[in-house]
Every structure is written in structure tokens, then in C-alpha cells.
Amino acid sequence: MTAPGVERAGGCAIAVMAKSPRPGQVKTRLVPPLTPDAASALSASFLRDISENIARAAEAGAICGYVAYAPAGTERAFDGMLAQGTRLVLADGMTISAPRITGFGRPLLHAARSLFAAGHEAVCLLNSDSPTLPTALLSRAAEALVEPGDRVVLGPAEDGGYYLIGMKAPHVPLFEDIAWSTSAVADETRRRAGALGLPVVELDPWYDVDDAPALHRLCRDLASARSLRRPSPYPARATADCIERLRIAELLGATPAAAAE
Question: Does the structure show a pLDDT above 90 at 197?
Fold first, then answer.
């Protein structure tokens, strides 16, 4: 992992939006059924898998992997946690002064501006809640942003939000007056892109693991010997190991036997 900050680089940056995985600060909607320590460990495993997933996509394309982190001063917490070569960029939203950009929009815009300032030609901002997201979707997002002309790439989440937003410039209206953490986020983002005259490239939908039912689903998915879903889910080995080590599936009642039914 490189030192905090960014270097001049082209290609597409794919940055995971992440808090430092500290007990009581991450995956709080999973407490209970998890303890704060278990939720923190699970968050760390998600980051490992997602950064490895980005690294896999980078093997076939001009992609640079990042973690866009907060809060400031927690850089060392990521040591040894991420895929080799993953860079860090601060995205706590403190540099954003636009009054119509609130909540999660502030770190999103902060990350986008920082990565474009580093010289990247395109930027994708990715959630930290989808460890099984297919690698093919990351590759498709980067490929869509290579094509001539401005556009937005949107990876819609099944709950109405989005797991990924990609762009070729840090368009401020994409982040203004958005009701974050609601089922209206993706639709409102589509409307904003339309108002800007930007075509939207839609990826396949995927799910976030941000509550107990979604965690139960993740346990079932990881316990399945094979998946018939296309594109194929990322295997998320670090997450699977964490779930097994902490016996999370048993806690939720999502045992391997139940998952196979």
C-alpha cells in the first residue's frame, strides 16, 4: 500500500468509500446481532475483498485502486488490510463548502475532485458494502468511461441507492440535494444526469450488506458451492473466512445446510 495521498496518473480510478474499521464506528446497523468488534472485523474483511476485486479488474484494464477514507489521521488503520498497490485518498468532505451538498454527498464529491486532480481521466466511486460484486461490473464501468464523450455510469443497488457511480468530470449537481440513504437516490441521480445532458450507462443491479437480512443473504450466497448468477459473484474469501471464524452464519441461522436448500 502506498503512502497517503495520490500521484499523477491516468486511467480510471476506482475508489472504495470507507470509514476506518473501528469498533462502534462501522457497520452499526449490524449491531446487534453482531458485537461492535465483530462488525469491525467484518468491515475489514469487506475492504480486503473489495480492494482485491478492484486489483483483479485492473489486471485487464487501466484501473487504479483506492480507498477514499475518513476520518483524517486514521491512515495507519488500513496497514496490511488492503490489496497490494491500493492507494489511499482522504475523503472526509471537509473541503466541500457548497451548501446544497450534505451528508454522504460531501465525501463523494471530495473523493471525485481529489482523484481528478491527481490526473485520472475517469473516476468510479464504490460502496464498501458489496464484497461479492462481480469483477465484470467493475471492468464494464471502466470500459464505459473510456468511450468518447461525457457520461455517467451507475451501478444501481437493489434498495434504490447505488453501489457505484462513475464519471468523467466531478459534476457537482450529481451530489446536490440528494436524500441519501433512501430508496430515491438512484432515480434522483438519473434525473440529475439527464438535466446535465449526460447519458447514463446502467450496470446490473447488486445488493448492499448493511442490515441483518442482507447479511443473512450474504452468508447463504457464500455457503453455496456454485452460483448460477451471471455475471459471476466475486468469491470474497476474506469475508467468507471472517464469517466462519466468528460463526456469524450460525448466529443468524444461515447455516451451510440451510443455504443449500
Answer: yes
